[in-house]
Design brief:
Blueprint lengths: L11 E6 L11 H8 L6 E4 L8 H14 L3 E7 L5 H14 L3 E5 L20 H11 L3 E6 L10 H13 L4 E4 L5 H13 L6 E5 L5 H11 L5 H10 L3 H22 L3 E5 L4 H10 L1 H20 L1
Parallel strand pairs: 1-2, 1-8, 2-3, 3-4, 4-5, 5-6, 6-7, 7-8
The protein binds flavin-adenine dinucleotide (FAD).
The site of flavin-adenine dinucleotide (FAD) has 22 residues, from strand 3, helix 4 and helix 5.
Length: 305
C-alpha cells in the first residue's frame, strides 16, 4: 500500500528505526520490531546508513516490516554517493518485496577529503532523486523538510524555495527534522502553505534520554534547544532515570499539542528503544482512540449522506 493513502485518515502515526551495524546480523532488529509492532503504528520507516553503508540491511528490514509484521514500510534512500544504476537496483529489490514507499534523501555530504562536491554525479540534490524515482516506477515518495532551515542553507526563503522544487518534482508527503519547539513548526507550516506546499507534513519527534547524545545530534542537524528543554537537560543530566522521565514527558507534551493543532502525522524517532515509545503511546492512548472515533464518525457520516 502507498502511505500517501493513509493521510486520508489523519493523523498518521509512524515510527522510525535504524538497522544494526553492517557487520551485525540483520536478525537483531527483530527484538526492536517485536517491541513496537503492537503499538499499531500506521507505518515504520527504516533509515539508510550514511553513504549507503547499511543498504542491504535497510532493504531486508523493510521486507521484514512489510511481510513478517504486516505493517507498511518506508525505506529511506540517500543518493549523494549513488549512480542511477544503484538506485535502479534498490527500487527493483524493494519492488520484489512489495514495498511501495521510499523516503528520497540527498544524504549528508561525506566529510572525507576524497569527496569532491563539484564532481559530476547522477544526483546532486534530493529533488533529482525524486524525479528519477518518479520516472522509473510507481512508488509513493516521501521527502525531508526542516522547520528550522537545513543546516547548509543560510536563508529560510531559499530553503523553502528548494523544498517547493522538490515537492513539485513528485514528493507525496514530507517528514520534518526533529524539533523541540512546536511554534517553530507552526510558523514553518504557515510559510510552506503560503508558497503552495500543500501535501501532508508529519512532525518528527525525538524523545531525549541522553544529554550528550542530543547535543551531538543537534550540533549536526541545527535543531535548537529551547530554554525550557535546556533546563531539563542541565538539571537531570547525571540522573538517567529522571532525565528519561522528563524527556518522555516533554515529547508527549509536544505530541499532544501537535495532535490538538490538527497535524497530518507524528513520526517518532524511536532510537530502537521500544520501551520509550511504549511509554509515550501509553500516555496518548485515549487521544489516539479519540481520533479513531473521529475517523469512524466521518466514515459513518459519509455513508449516511
Ligand atoms: P535536499 O532536499 O537535497 O537539501 C539539501 C540542501 O540543499 C538544503 O540546504 C537545500 O536548501 C539545498 N538545495 C536543494 N536544492 C537546491 C538547489 N537547486 N540549489 C541550491 N541548493 C539547493 N540521512 C541519512 O544518511 N540516512 C537516513 O536514513 C536519513 N533519514 C532522514 C530522515 C528525515 C526525516 C530527515 C529530516 C533527515 C534524514 N537524513 C538521513 C538526513 C539527510 O540526509 C540530511 O539532512 C541531508 O543533509 C539533506 O538531505 P535532503 O534530502 O533534505 O536534501
Amino acid at each position: 500500500m502507498k502511505i500517501k493513502e493513509l493521510f486520508k485518515n489523519k493523523p498518521v502515526i509512524s515510527l522510525e528505526i535504524f538497522p544494526p551495524k553492517p557487520e551485525s546480523p540483520v536478525d537483531t532488529i527483530y527484538k526492536t520490531i517485536d517491541g513496537l509492532y503492537d503499538l499499531k503504528p500506521d507505518y515504520i520507516s527504516v533509515t539508510y546508513g550514511a553513504g549507503g553503508s547499511s543498504k542491504s540491511h535497510t532493504l531486508k528490514i523493510a521486507d521484514i516490516i512489510k511481510n513478517k509484521y504486516n505493517i507498511e514500510a518506508l525505506a529511506h534512500l540517500t543518493c549523494i554517493n549513488s549512480a542511477k544504476e544503484d538506485v535502479d537496483n534498490v527500487l527493483k529489490e524493494l519492488k520484489s518485496y512489495g514495498v511501495e514507499n521510499v523516503l528520497a534523501l540527498r544524504g549528508d555530504i561525506p566529510l572525507d577529503d576524497e569527496f569532491d562536491i563539484n564532481a559530476r554525479r547522477d544526483f546532486k540534490y534530493a529533488k533529482d532523486l525524486v524525479s528519477y524515482i518518479k520516472e522509473s516506477d510507481d512508488f509513493c515518495i516521501a521527502g525531508a523538510c526542516y522547520p528550522e532551515v537545513h543546516i547548509e542553507c543560510t536563508d529560510s526563503k531559499e530553503d523553502l524555495k528548494h523544498l517547493k522544487e522538490k515537492v513539485d518534482n513528485g514528493v507525496d508527503f514530507l517528514i520534518t527534522q526533529l524539533f523541540f519547539d512546536n511554534n517553530l513548526f507552526y510558523s514553518f507550516k504557515e510559510k510552506a502553505d503560503a508558497i503552495g506546499i500543500n501535501i501532508p507534513i508529519s512532525a518528527g519527534i525525538m524523545p531525549v534520554i541522553n544529554k550528550k547524545q542530543i547535543e551531538r545530534i543537534t550540533s549536526l542537524c541545527g535543531t535548537s534547544i529551547p530554554l525550557k528543554f535546556r533546563r531539563i537537560l542541565d538539571k537531570y543530566e547525571h540522573n538517567p532515570e529522571a532525565l528519561k522521565e522528563a524527556g518522555i514527558a516533554y515529547a508527549t507534551e509536544q505530541i499532544i499539542d501537535l495532535l490538538s493543532y490538527g497535524i497530518d502525522g507524528i513520526h517518532l524517532y524511536t532510537m530502537n528503544k521500544p520501551e520509550i515509545s511504549r511509554k509515550i503511546f501509553n500516555q496518548i492512548e485515549s487521544i489516539r482512540s479519540y481520533f479513531k472515533e473521529d475517523k469512524e464518525d466521518i466514515i459513518a457520516e459519509a455513508v449516511g449522506s
